[in-house]
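Box S2. Input/output pair 1.
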Amino acid sequence: MKLSEGQVIDIVRVEQVSAYTLKMFFSDGAERVINFEPFLRTSHNPLIRAYLDPEKFADFTLEYGNLMWDDYGLCFPIADLYENNIC
């Protein structure tokens, strides 16, 4: 499912399903299960690869409808998460 132009969506809840997989619940009722492991493993950026540490990955927060790690050390546009397009 894609967002319509101008549509505003927030993430309202996140559950960790496995080491690198999160289930996200969006404000429009949509749910997405996203495995972040392929993205993390294929990254050449050592700052991103640091999130392969399961404890570091599990330390995400949900702030103002945005999913993030640390102080925006790792974050994704909500539209990309909604569309399950994090490559």
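Box S3. Input/output pair 2.
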Amino acid sequence: MSSKYDKYLKLYNDIKSKKGIEPNNFVFARNLAGKKAVFLIQNMFPTLEKYIEQEYKKAGISIKVPKAVKEEINKKTRDIFALTNRGVIATFTNLPEFINNIKNEYKK
């Protein structure tokens, strides 16, 4: 997640106008913890729940992602996984390696 909302909104609009399609790399949230934020799907990496130490909190209050934003993140994440399964590199992270590591650990 990034708070550089305006920067990524401009990039999003530039890509959309040049290519004529909506880029899958961004999910925008207008009010997350009282400010605008953008989730950068290209930076994602899967993990197992046991590695998550705590909820994201601000001033001791848990930050909840709105349902509509969660749904958009899930849809775009599935799209990225589908591209990855077809051999397309769509993230900055090594997504196939993360997936293999998780599968191996899950088997244990």
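Caption for Box S3: Residues 5-107 form a domain with the Thiol Ester Dehydrase; Chain A fold (CATH 3.10.129.130). Residues 50 and 106 are 11 Å apart (CA to CA).
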